[in-house]
């Protein structure tokens, strides 16, 4: 089965039927994937405001109606409780379990936030002949906690998490322009070449994901990361929260190229 | 007094002291101005979601904390109840009065939404040698109701309002590029040259503002307008709402050029 060339609706149908258990990296070439955060309505205002105040790390692609498992903008015929291949449920900030279907846990007060994912701009980088090392090395992107404070909103506060990609020195400006044109999926880098300036003291040991090779002449470049909202939510310990499991994203019907406009 | 070259903080101080009663058009050259909508917290989630779903007409520059008359991002040392030269108070969708100071009406449950304004991209158009007719003719921009539905959110629903500027036919593409680079202040046009396609049947008689001259060889170009949220709010009849009075905008400390990034 070549998931890369399949339509998003077909892959979502396979996921809903329980026939795909693996991460979604590389599936449905050219289509955007999204992070999921589902929270009780009681906390939804604070989280929506947090996203409004921190659009670099929390670019919202869609917010569901209260209690609804459907979406309207970024995909159709969706059951958000079944169309992701692996979910996490958190209770009071502690992971209570991983599931391939959370319809049995669904609550009528849940609001789902779909947040842009850097998978989208990686496709654009590759098309522009800029290497993406963790794809070459078949591992997860390295991610780091930083000292860059997010703007607080109600109960939600915390620091930005960033992802790192080593970029050949003569392609750094091009990488800024390519990703800067896609603000709905994190946009331009927040730091270029000086990790210690944002509180990263041990580049070899990322806080999340895997380390990748940095070759001679390459510069570590740091982008706001979709792990930020999850880290912030976990530190705020909401009584109940559903997220996707890292790497198991929601596949949208939106082409990456359309996220530029 | 040459308000055009003054600093935003100085003009806001004059406004707060009651020394400026006129519209803010042309004040503090190069700095962004903003629309104001202040609503009770009870309605704030629906309005924040409405803005998230309709970023073309409701681009949020900042959302205040509940009850706070201060801002943090787009200006400092602000009293949002006194730093606009004219306000409107609406009760159940009906205008109850205009005031130069609404501190006596302030409520601890109000949330203030500051929304981008096309004044920002007009400066960019002029710098790019694209004429802005209503500035040349010293009148208000013509605005029209359309048949373009906004995406609903809770109690808020309605159609987009657009502003129109006649653009010389050979500068239309340039005007699209200039404004398209500024999505935080409405961005690119929604319609070029075919008003009837968006439900505008009488171009000579705008629904708001003043008609301007359309010369031979010019094309009417339509942009999403900051009147949209006010029209939507008024049709939704919240029990209490404070807005700026049209033309009397909040002057921010943010340079227009910085709204591009």
The top level CATH class name of the largest domain in chain A: Alpha Beta
Q: Find the CATH superfamily of the largest domain in chain A.
A: PSTPO5379-like
Global Rg of chain A: 17 Å
Number of strands of chain A: 11
Beta-strand portion of chain A reads: 25-35%
For this structure, the CATH topology of the largest domain in chain A is PSTPO5379-like
Could you explain the architecture of this structure?
- The structure is a homodimer of 261-residue chains.
- Chain A has 261 residues and is an alpha+beta fold.
- Helices cover 21% and strands 26% of the residues of chain A.
- Chain A has 6 helices and 11 strands.
- Chain A has helices at 8-16, 41-53, 119-127, 133-136, 172-180, 227-236; strands at 31-40, 60-63, 87-91, 94-99, 110-116, 143-149, 159-168, 191-192, 218-224, 241-244, 250-255.
- In chain A, strands 1, 2, 3, 4, 5, 10 and 11 form a 7-stranded antiparallel β-sheet that branches. Chain A has a 4-stranded antiparallel β-sheet with strand order 6-7-9-8.
SSE map:
Two copies of one chain form a homodimer.
Chain A: H1 8-16, E1 31-40, H2 41-53, E2 60-63, E3 87-91, E4 94-99, E5 110-116, H3 119-127, H4 133-136, E6 143-149, E7 159-168, H5 172-180, E8 191-192, E9 218-224, H6 227-236, E10 241-244, E11 250-255
Antiparallel strand pairs in A: 1-5, 1-10, 1-11, 2-5, 3-4, 3-10, 6-7, 7-9, 8-9
Concise account of the structure shown:
The first copy, chain A, is an alpha+beta fold and 261 residues long. Chain A is 21% helix and 26% strand.
Keywords:
homodimer, 261 residues, alpha+beta, PSTPO5379-like fold, seven-stranded antiparallel beta sheet, 6 helices, 11 strands, 26% strand
């Amino acid at each position: 089965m070549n998931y890369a060339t399949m339509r998003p609706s077909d892959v979502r149908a396979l996921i809903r039927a329980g026939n795909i258990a693996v991460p979604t990296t590389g599936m449905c070439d050219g289509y955007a994937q999204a992070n999921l955060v589902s929270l009780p309505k009681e906390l939804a205002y604070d989280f929506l405001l947090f996203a409004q105040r921190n659009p670099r790390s929390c670019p919202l692609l869609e917010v569901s109606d209260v209690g609804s498992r459907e979406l309207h903008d970024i995909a159709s015929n969706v059951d958000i409780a079944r169309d992701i291949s692996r979910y996490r449920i958190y209770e009071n900030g502690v992971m209570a379990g991983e599931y391939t279907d959370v319809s049995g846990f669904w609550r009528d007060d849940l609001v789902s936030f779909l947040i842009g994912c850097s998978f989208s701009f990686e496709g654009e980088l590759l098309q522009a002949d800029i290497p993406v090392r963790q794809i070459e090395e078949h591992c997860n992107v390295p991610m780091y906690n930083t000292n860059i404070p997010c703007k607080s909103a109600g109960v939600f506060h915390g620091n930005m998490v960033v992802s790192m990609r080593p970029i050949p020195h003569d392609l750094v400006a091009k990488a800024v322009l390519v990703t800067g044109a896609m603000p709905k999926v994190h946009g331009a880098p927040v730091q270029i070449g000086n990790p210690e300036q944002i509180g990263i003291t041990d580049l070899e040991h990322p806080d999340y994901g895997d380390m990748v090779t940095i070759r001679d002449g390459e510069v570590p470049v740091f982008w706001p990361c979709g792990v930020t909202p999850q880290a912030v939510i976990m530190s705020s310990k909401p009584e109940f929260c559903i997220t996707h499991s890292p790497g198991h994203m929601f596949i949208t019907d939106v082409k990456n190229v359309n996220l530029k406009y």
